[in-house]
Amino acid sequence: MVTSFTFVRKRPELSDEEFFSRWTQHTQDFDIVDHPYITKNRLMLVAGDTPYIGMAENHWPDIESLARTEAFYRDTERGRAHWADLSEFMDIDASPTVIVTKEADVSEAGVVQIIPPTAPNTTG
Predict the structure, then answer these.
(1) SS in 3 state form for the chain?
(2) pTM metric for this prediction
């Protein structure tokens, strides 16, 4: 599994509520249909002194699935329609996507590295 996060900027003419409503509707109408292999589409609005209005978390089955989406957007009619709809409310060029390369759960019981997986570290 591959986890990605996209730090999202909205089009300035939209209120935060208009943006979030449009974003969730787009995800339901396009992402769920066009990328059914994504096991998680989590959309979050954020507060604070940041240039980003939100963050999207996506779980992909593998890196190849993520890489194929670029060709889908570029080479298919449905992909171009998907991209055009996204462009109506999101500043795509200013919304970077990053890939998680390491992840760990840390608690009183110790550290469990999730990505890449390792055994719990309970020494201390």
Answers:
(1) CEEEEEEECECCCCCHHHHHHHHHHHHHHHHHHHCCCCCEEEEEECCCCCCCCEEEEEEECCHHHHHHHHHHHHHCHHHHHHHHHHHCCECHHHCCEEECCCEEEEECCEEEEEECCCCCECCC
(2) 0.85
